[in-house]
Amino acid sequence: MDWLTNKVTAPDQAYYQHAVNRQAILTKPAGSLGVLEEVAMRLAAMQKTQQPEVERVWVSVFAADHGIAAESVSAFPQVVTAEMVRNFANKGAAVNVLSCFVNAQFEVIDVGLIEPVQEKSVIVDRAGNGTANFAKQAAMTESQMQAALQTGRSAVERALKQQTQLFIAGEMGIANTTSASAIAAALSGLTVEQLTGAGTGLDAKAIQHKAKVIIEAIRLHQPFLNSPLDILQYLGGFEIAALVGAYIYAAQKQIPVLIDGFISSVAALLAVKINPAIKAWFFYAHYSQEKGHVRVLEQLQARVLLDLNMRLGEGSGAVAAVPLLQMACKLHNEMATFQQAEIST
Length: 345
Description:
Helix content is 48%, strand content 12%. By secondary structure, the protein is of the alpha/beta class. It folds into 2 domains: 2-52 and 331-341, Nicotinate-nucleotide-dimethylbenzimidazole phosphoribosyltransferase (CobT), small domain (5,6-Dimethylbenzimidazole Phosphoribosyltransferase, Chain: A, domain 1), CATH 1.10.1610; 57-322, 3-Layer(aba) Sandwich (Rossmann fold). Strands 3-2-1-4-5-6-7 form a 7-stranded parallel sheet, with helices on both faces. Strand 5, helix 11 and strand 6 form a beta-alpha-beta unit. Helix 6 (176-188) crosses helix 8. The longest helix has 20 residues, at 142-161. The radius of gyration is 20 Å and the shape is globular.
């Protein structure tokens, strides 16, 4: 796993300054396009170009089952994970519709369903038959964690072959908000109660039960939670590990990454703890309605693009934000300058 801490090249500050200079002469008051200006300038630095663009978008959705589902922490039965993978394969999910709308290349990867689904379009790159119940034992072995991290790296390698300009990772796994809340608590020092939300639709009593399960699991494993990778191994999910691997490798390969909601942001936080330099390659799509998301974003010192009351996962919120990045590039590249428009400065 040495590759996880390989050097990350920072975005090119010379191109960033070129972009700053161009923004200053476009026909608008300085700073009047707000975050759209910053997005364009950052993309110019990432892509080392004076004409940034986000036309080749890649979406990988990682799916896996969680042993912690046995503790009744989800409003949906575990079988829904595989059923949703079939839905992704048949292009019926929200993220499929949104990916089609932005002309993104889409793939779904079985990182560790309990049983593989029989769909030809599903990429099979499994770390195991679902994680173990982390209320009783470590969620995964070290070798399983390594395999899941590599699954994320492999997705980025496929994206690289298509010369992607933006990488998005989504996730699917019943009970994965329980895993994500546990990871976030162990990483941040925030309380489990601050981070534990409704997930797929739990009521207040069920949320209390979910938090209790997490607290007891962290207490059980506390002596072993000595590093971000330990936390991932003992409390994580295969799809969360794949997200971590993908985020780190995308940054190492200088691909801009657009982070989705709560689970994706927890994976981003974990990835940043492993390799802090990757943070310069991240954009954050939206505020999830999942309770702990705002806390995780604070840990990342992140500014998001949208607030749409979404909490679906799948990468859907990130794909929904793609048109904003595209518009930011169009504005930067195609607006007239004061000189071209013969407008007084």
